[in-house]
Amino acid sequence: MSLRVALIGYGVIGHVHAPIIKEHATLCAVCDTDPDKASDFKDIPFYTDYKEMLLKEKPDIVHICTPHYLHTEMILTALSMDIHALCEKPMCINETDIGRILEAERNSKAMLGICQQNRYNPANLYLKAAADKAATKSATGQLCWHRGKDYYMSAAWRGKWNTEGGGCLINQALHTLDILQWLVGMPRALRATVSNMTLSDTTEVEDSAIVLGEGENPFVLSATVGFACDQAVSVSLMLGERKMTAEGNRVYEGDTVHVFDNARELGKACYGSSHETLISDFYDCVTTGRHFPIDGAEAAKVIRLILAAYKSEGKPVTI
To answer: Homologous superfamily of 4-117 in CATH?
Structure first.
């Protein structure tokens, strides 16, 4: 029996989720506050109120593809109705909501999954397998992209603390920071600086960040969206003298280059190729009862790191 799946939010990332849903399940309903988008779903019920949709359609799963500040309430609503929820990152944008979501998850019969899909990239999985065998390790990550005024002016919620929750760190670099802590573990403490060097006349939030995770297995993240163009994200894992660097579908290890077959890319190239892999895995978990690996507790790790980074101002913050 095909899973009945609903979609909330048919914007940039919703356009990535919709075709995947159609290929792997039954898209039973769509919700967006813009009624004009109904024209893309002539044979599917379309709503402008997500609560009405969930009550009437009672889907098995709902995908949440809305602006950051809306994620928490939509997750809580779905879980309270025992509807499995797959939410785009970030899970939430403040500490209070972490607790609310984890409590709702404990009290629900439904699963929660968060789209931190870079964990499914084959190159990152190769690094993870090596990291899990090592007693001592460290890691570095670099994100160097461009996001200009047009990007932030494209939607009213972008570039504001109350609605986006931050800038490059919580939006673009979240995935890289998540991979770093996934490889070497959560740090004992964190130091960070954030700055807005190129977009201070456009946004409230940072365009650049440096994050240092301190402890037995340290990491460093450097991230900016103030560059002239998008460069490939780089993650390096150090195991003593041994260095492995993942970029896209390749891992560079000394003179050896490992090339992996990635899944198809959907949407922007910066999204990577693993949305479909993650979504398929979530559906399998719902069907079989297997635990989905990126649940609320797991997704909360990178949110706690980001919130600590925003507090740090160069001083250590205990995690």
So the answer is: NAD(P)-binding Rossmann-like Domain (3.40.50.720)
